[in-house]
Write a structure and sequence with these properties.
Elements lengths: L2 H21 L4 H11 L5 E7 L5 H14 L4 E7 L25 E7 L11 H9 L4 E7 L4 H6 L4 E6 L5 H7 L8 E4 L5 H18 L11 E3 L8 H17 L2 H30 L10 H14 L1
Parallel strand pairs: 1-4, 1-5, 2-3, 2-4, 5-6, 6-7
Bound molecules: guanosine-5'-diphosphate.
Amino acid sequence: MDLDTLKAGGKAALARALAEIERHPDAPETVALLDQAYQAPTAHVVGMTGPPGVGKSTLMNALIGGWRKSGRRVACIAVDPSSRRSGGALLGDRTRLSTDPEDQGIFVRSMAARDRLGGLAGLTVSAMVLMRALYDIVLIETVGVGQSETDVAGVADTVLFCVQPGSGDSLQFMKAGIAEIPHVVVVTKADMEQAAQRARSDVLGALSLGGADGADGWTVPVLMVSSLRQDGLDQLIAAIDDHRAFLEGSGRLVDARHGQAALWLCEAVRERWGREGIRRAGDLSLPPGESPFSRLATVNTRLGCA
Ligand code: GDP
């Protein structure tokens, strides 16, 4: 299948392509499709993380609704850490999201987190690259357990971190040293007004202490959103767009995506061939503009034959 066929085939074709990538990740057709998609990105990739219960799925539903209203097409990947140990690949639409199955402008996939890329499913990066060439927004949700905040930064252009009022999340945020990761902080359940205000000041304090805020020219907005009342949603969507414009304006988007792809390549080699493989592979640098998928295929062939 090539990218044009995939574009013409809608959600059913994408589901088939994802199944194919999972079954035959090394097949030349798979690699060729991923190369094509890698070279033709259209979407803004948004990562969302935060502890269980903070309100991520509710917010995802609200965001999807907001984006759809303005005609944007959205693909979602929900990474499920609970299936981490089973190692099985379980794809299926997540029931927590209530989207219209008839709407061709929404595609939802949940994936089991495995150890590749420290917790994001092995398929996540390939799926993201494919969706990035087909949709306007790719939203990746992971539960904030340990590493996943950093993992999502390895695949997303813009990272949202969700904090719940009155939960101590903002303290956690300070301690865990993750203050430099998010580009937008969302205080959820802002209908709990006083607690939300307090959480917001705590996060603002943590950001200024961490010194991350504004360090690269981007000031991290801390927004209060009530998905329940649909308050603050437009501001959140605008902040996500602002970050995208910031990245594009400064040429950072291309650099950041290249950095992610280069890192993914090393991780993929390490995953398959171990540290010894990294040593044997020698130069694993990824020239700017080159797809990591064909590069990985070349390395795999070389290591397999050596
Ligand atoms: P997740 O585990 O982070 O995906 O969180 P959920 O989206 O499942 O939400 C957890 C709980 O918080 C549910 O009971 C939601 O109804 C509730 N919740 C989500 N958003 C809001 C909100 O904006 N205001 C209030 N008061 N409750 C909310």
